[in-house]
TrEMBL record:
CC terms in the record's Gene Ontology section: cytoplasm
One of the Pfam families matching this protein, by short name: His_Phos_1
MF (Gene Ontology): phosphatase activity
Name the record gives this protein: Phosphomutase-like protein
Amino acid sequence: MVTAQVVFKLPRPLPEFNTTTDYFIQSDPKQPRQHPITNFGLKDQWTWDSLIEQIKLLPSHKLFLLQRHGEGYHNIAPANYSKHEWNCYWQLRSGNGEVEWEDARLTPTGQAQITSLQKQITNTENFPRPHAFYVSPLRRTLETWELTWYDQGEVATIKELARETYGIGTESKRHSKTYIETHYPGFAFELGFTESDELWNPDFHESEQHRNYRAAKLLQEIFNENQENNVISLVAHSGLIKSILQVIGHRKWPMYTGELIPVVIAMTYDSKTYSLDDPWRSLKDVCKV
């Protein structure tokens, strides 16, 4: 695990990653956008079985099931306030006395979204079973993973690098390791996972540039940990998934809450040094209307 301070101060080359337009509608800029997409976007000339057999022939390629959490209370709370009120005051609070959005949990709508997704997975013929599961440590992603995959009898590994863009807003602040162990038993923690949240900062908001570097580092770790595994599940956030798609050269694909898109990702032997010179935004920057 790499802390934000170390990543920010010590940029280093990482492998280059890419994707292909061959298998999925969402990965092919020539295809019109569809929401929702039939059969998770798998093109008609492929079956799930033939796709997996093809990936097995390409050791540097893996099928990632990129999943955004269901609707959380932080997703609906801003609608109750003006942009200025939310950015400059309310997002700094844990809640408003009626709704808590710090490390937000799923709303009933969010739970229903994931229940529907789980049924879609179950009803999709020969949908690939992940060989490894990874999840962000925030409550909404842990709850999303449980509703989607718990019945598979597998264990997901919590990774700090899989978090949403963090800082200033309390929705991006995680609970302690002890809290997670107590309230969400059955998850594995990556080596070095700290007791307290050492990434979140009340004064600064992570830059997109840094989040992209973090996404590339996360992909590198997952590839290195899964030499023989072909199918990877990652439950994360819209910002983090946006960065993954950008890192691999995928077209932009806005992720709705509760959505899952399969994407084939390859790790190459080429390297890339990520610039980390963009400043992180302060509260004064965020508060501008």
